[in-house]
Amino acid sequence: MIIKNLFKSTCLVAGILFSSVLLSATNDPGGKFIKEGIWRGVFTVSETQVPFNFELKGKDPEHAVFTLLNGSRRDNFHVQRLGKDSLFIKMNTYDAALVAKINDDGSLTGEYRSLVPNFRGNSLPFTAEYGKSYRFVEPGKDVAPAEDLTGKWEIKTYSKDAVPASIALLKQKGNKITGVVMTVVGDTREIEGTVQGDEFALSGFTGPSPFIIKGKINPDHTLTGEEGFGIYKNLKFDAAKNADAELPDPYKITFLKEGYKKLDFSFPGIDGKQVSLSDDKYKGKVVIVEVIGTWCPNCTDQTVFLSPWFNKNKHRGVEAIAIGFEQKDSLAYAKYTLGKLKEKYNIQYDIAFGGLADKKLVSQKLPALNKFIAFPTTIIIDRKGDVREIYTGYTGTVTGKYHEDYEKKFNKVLDELIAEPVPETVTASVAADKPSNQ
């Protein structure tokens, strides 16, 4: 979901400092280590408690895997030791980490910290206890739910600023409830929680900003509550069950301004070369342009989808470009963050750096677009270089049928465009270039 990311609000120590500490500490074979098994953590966000669960497998840093648990979703991270009694858990391609001290009783006390260099902000403290698998309510203390919240909920959010329409897809079994909140710009990933009497609460933490949604079931069967995204954003909402509720068509939100048929840009690639749609490698090809950021969870999910798809289909006359807008306006920093993304997800298409992660800046650098409202945004270009489709946001696998529909249409559009002939002007241009290249 497109939110003011927690990374912008959580930094006590720069990444360079952590790196130097790790180099001196992770080789230390001694000291305490976190117990294997299930844990319950709690973030303190302002005055709100946001619980999360994780599992640790492995008896030492070399073999340990730290797994965040959210409903059926699993996100794995590596664990490193800091000194004799502390841990450092990097949030994979998100430039942030959990840093925690192992207390004498085996519990953890720590902070979620941004690693973005030279950025200062507030930390997000947390504690964690071993052997507790519940999220909100201890076993044996459940109260019978007043209602089954399973279904589709149309949400009306209240804010001074414009807020995208949203829908919640919920599944309840007894007191336990899981689901996802969708908007036109993305989704929350899977969240889980509980219904106790006429109150409900769900939370999620997968690496970037923790999310919480809580509220009450009203006598008329509607919901009233509050959504919390990290530190910055807390929004009140009302919701009503509506099986027919739908979001605006993501293919009709972002489009080219009148008079434009093509997209034009030139950005520095993380490999040191400029990346432009006018480059020879893209001529006569179908091109998928992704506008992303490594700080953006939906962008990661989209990359998880696109990278293997591209690796399987690249022989068919299709190319892709990811344009990353990062938390620091630095090519050197972008080479690090986007390079980590490339490595982890085996990205075999070009990755360029667009600048600072700011939607107004994206609009300025891609002036053919009517507006830019979401990371990620997918732009599909045909063999003639004309923009044929633009998809705003991303629809993750947790949305079920919505993701299946997204994947089906994506493949249908790409199959049709790939089947189109290479323009004669491109064929002639390539033929004319051959003698000079031999």
Automatic annotation (TrEMBL):
Top-rank taxon: Bacteria
GO MF terms, alphabetically ordered: antioxidant activity; oxidoreductase activity
SUPFAM superfamilies per the UniProt record, alphabetical: Thioredoxin-like
Keywords: Signal
Keyword Signal found: yes
Thioredoxin domain location: 256-419
Signal peptide: 1-24
PROSITE patterns linked to this entry: THIOREDOXIN_2 (PS51352)
InterPro entries named among the record's database cross-references: AhpC/TSA (IPR000866), Thioredoxin-like_sf (IPR036249), Thioredoxin_domain (IPR013766), Thioredoxin_ResA/DsbE_sf (IPR050553)
Protein's UniProt name: Peroxiredoxin
Organism whose genome encodes this protein: Mucilaginibacter mallensis
